[in-house]
Amino acid sequence: MEGIRATYRVQLHAGFTFDDAAATVPYLARLGVSHLYCSPYLQAAKGSTHGYDVVDHSRLNEELGGEAAFGRLVEALSAHGMSQVLDIVPNHMAIPGRDNAWWWDVLENGPASRYASFFDIDWDPPERKLVAQVLVPVLGDQYGRVLEDGQLELRREGGSFLVAYHEHEVPISPRSVDDLLSAAAERCESDEVASLATAFGRLPHALITDRASVDERHRDKEILKNRLADLCASSVDLASAVDEEVKAVNDDPDALHNLLERQNYRLAYWRTAGQELDYRRFFDITTLVGLRTEDEPVFRETHALVTALVADGAVEGLRIDHVDGLRDPYEYLERLHSATSGTYLVVEKILEGDETLPERWSIAGTSGYDYLNEVNGLFVDPQREAAMTEVYARFTGEPTDYADICWNAKQQIMRTVLAADIHRLTALAADVVERHRRYRDHTRAELRDALRELIAAFGVYRTYVRPGEEASAEDVAQVDAAVTTALARRPDLDADLMRFLADVALGRHDGPAESELCLRMQQVTSPVMAKGVEDTVFYRFNRLVSLNEVGGEPDHFGTSVEEYHRRRASASWRGSLRATSTHDTKRSEDVRTRLNLLSEMPDRWGAAVERWGAMHERHLVDGAPDLNFRYLLYQTLVGAWPLPVDRAVAYAEKATKEAKVHTSWVDPSPAYDAAVRSFVEAVLADEDFTTEVGAFVSELVEPGRASSLAQTVLKLTAPGVADIYQGTELWDLSLVDPDNRRPVDYRLRSELLDELDRGGLDAALARADDGATKLWAVQRLLGLRLDPLLPYTPLPAQGPKARHVVAYLRGSDHVVVVSRLHIGLAGDWQDTALTLPEGQWVDVLSDASHAGGGVGLRTLLDRLPVAVLRKA
């Protein structure tokens, strides 16, 4: 990680290309950033706004400017002494028709595809109708209705055939066009076409997968397709005969159905995916198919360009997306570490509670969600938890047992959008128990029930057991805890069976089926946690939504100063990013710091929401939306105020659908959705309400900014690599994506830097409303170039307001002091003081000078709510 001091994350897309990123480099260099941190930029699906939907690992994204523009970005970075960290996606690929040549080949050739082993497809799934076929759930209605309605169309392109359905296309297996070509041969009396028909029909079957047969099929099918294309191009009559047969098939639903029955895929109603999908995907997104990156050939093909960029020096670090989706993260990271000669690697990993990264992983650390939640918690007052819970329960009537809410949501997810994953686990478990006589009489229903309960009880995203090795103490503890929790909740379960499944999950039973179940279970617990908790519970449990953050624990009400110090002083994983906002966060850092203030004023907050709730009863439609959403909406408006109607409506739609209570993406309720929209619009058109919200928020703006500034200083001076999300160097009141991907005004930021260069802190304070104080802190502190590995020593404050201080020493030459819980502090430090180490100290933010020994906080934080002192 040598040289990586601070990263700046940008979201690349057609509206912000390599050249646009290059244009920001002079500004970022002035800011003090060492590395541009880029969203994925290998070739993605057309129109991608994020890059996580890669379709071709061998090319740079053409919509970003391709290789030429990328070269200009590299040159700009090099000219300013900077480099890049790149976000890569090893877990999955997008499958938008023929843009993904590998997937197109799989659909055309089934198990005999050269790329069949690249994707995590179950060619022998529990659903027997899908044996040797891939489910393609893209139809808007039942297959038979779509077919008979003429919405499926067979087409010829040269010597190839495909079926089109609106924007979707799927290839026709060459072996299956023999009958069509035979009929065309009779129509035009062509022996050559008849010969081609016979040759197509004699291609090796897709179920014959030995290397020689696969090579023969691929060689001969291309020769035959080229011959057919040439014949059609050279003879109008012959082409017309073939096209007439295509038309005849399209005119006859039975004929088209018979042709589709011979394919290596099964077109289906989109709703079948949750129950029957036969390939692993990213969470519940059917258009993102899982890769078998654990296989060396797949790794080599998918990482060739990335490793070349690292070898060339264009990229100096990698962020690994969704490492928990991989079959064997340890093996993958070892291979990547070796292939990149030990370059800087961080993983997107959500740690729960006191969970830590596996010590043997060859990485620098995480992408920063753990830090984000720890530092955010410093600005939540744990002493008011009970009062905040009472306010929430009284207004909404919602349950507040967080564990129960999580369990219910996970169960819902496993019965709906991830049911197919549970079915596959159940089939594996049935194979396993058949080999163990003590458990073989358990039915599939019993096994499915036991697996659901075990997975729902998991307190972490996944374990990292490797069959053939002894499970770590951490993994054993997590699995044992899950069994205990499951049996406590469901004493009717067979305890012996639960412990057997736990032993399989811990790799304690040998055998291929046992190992497969162990590995597969680890790949399922993660999406169940993500979809059940992060994407469902975080929109249901709305007590204080600033805690409902990626990697957060909403039932953990705040972080104590002692806990924060303990984690920072640890010598582990000091190469981790220190993030406070990301492309995935539910709300920006500045929204969170403002909302955190509510934890210090539950009575005033409770009175306000009760008053607002009464004001808005007249805007309900048949009682909708419910009180829980209204409570979330009021927090959202306070946190992001002023919030335009269009952004508020977009957020409300996403929040209600993610909550999956009255409406969802899978089962939308048009009536409820309309009621939500009309409610939000009516509330924001209510002048009495908007005036009152504005007045309420006005009292939070300055303490919220003080908290934001304190959080920024902590991030920039804590051990690790500081990470800034695009635009957040100024105040940023963004909500969940796509709201947090709005364009950033870099001209404004550059002009503000010019003003700060001329006028210093006075200029920053004069432009505080524009975020100049935050920008000032970022530039000054990045300019310190603190070594991420410097020792961290807590410094305790003394006095009646000591709980409002976080202070520590970095190395021996820098002291950091920030204030917190600003509502309770109310600007009155009384006689609270901090003892500085011996020597003379200068505040790099205000230029104030202080001698070692006792110094009052009123003096230290005279002009700003933060101070960073450097030894003179």
TrEMBL record:
User: Which UniProt keywords are present, listed alphabetically?
Assistant: Isomerase
Record-level GO BP terms: alpha-glucan catabolic process; trehalose biosynthetic process
Return any one Pfam family short name.
Answer: Alpha-amylase
In the Enzyme Commission scheme, what number(s) does this protein have?
5.4.99.15
Give the GO molecular function terms.
(1,4)-alpha-D-glucan 1-alpha-D-glucosylmutase activity
Q: Gene3D superfamilies recorded for this chain? A: Glycosidases (3.20.20.80), Maltooligosyl trehalose synthase, domain 2 (3.30.1590.10)
Q: Which part of the chain is the Glycosyl hydrolase family 13 catalytic domain?
A: 2-508
Under which name does UniProt file this protein? GH13_26 / GH13 / GH13_20
Q: Which organism is it from?
A: uncultured Acidimicrobiales bacterium
